[in-house]
Fold this sequence. Notes:
Radius of gyration: 16 Å
Oligomer: single chain
Low-confidence stretches: 17-41, 119-130, 132-136
Strand content: 25-35%
Amino acid sequence: MTLLKSLRIVNLFISFLFLLSVIFGACDGGGGEGEENPPPDPGTTLPGTGAIQGNVISSNGFTLNAVHVRAVNIDNQNLQISAFSGIGPNLTFQDGVYRIDGIPQGDYLVLIERLDGRSMVFNKERYSDFVTINSPLLSFPDEYFNGDGESSTDKPLDSVKVTVVNGQTTQGINFITND
């Protein structure tokens, strides 16, 4: 198994564990008495990888949660890593914020999409109420990050590459949906 496939599997597994913790209420923010391993600093990334962070906002200015944000490697489109908006660092709720950790260095196209059952991998029955209740209420086309051209009237398929550097978080990758 290649390193890239392993990272993808690890990312999916971490997402699955998070969603289970949301379902069962296990996300208490940590920091309990006697805790030997405190949660990592939200500004850190996994060794040998970087991160992408931003916000998802509707065309009328509201923050959006349960939006699937996906980074697709330009050189190897099989390398795709994702997260949901509304889930911040250390598995905390952060309105409209997303962060994708564990991304190998390289150039990526980043896009947003509703979780509406179109993909077998991201079938809504596999996720917590946070996602399955919020995502169907959203109505926007899939859209790529468009850099300075990002707006509620841009062309959803226009895109700019986002460069990920090991040990750094690429911030400001903000989306405005085309409702």
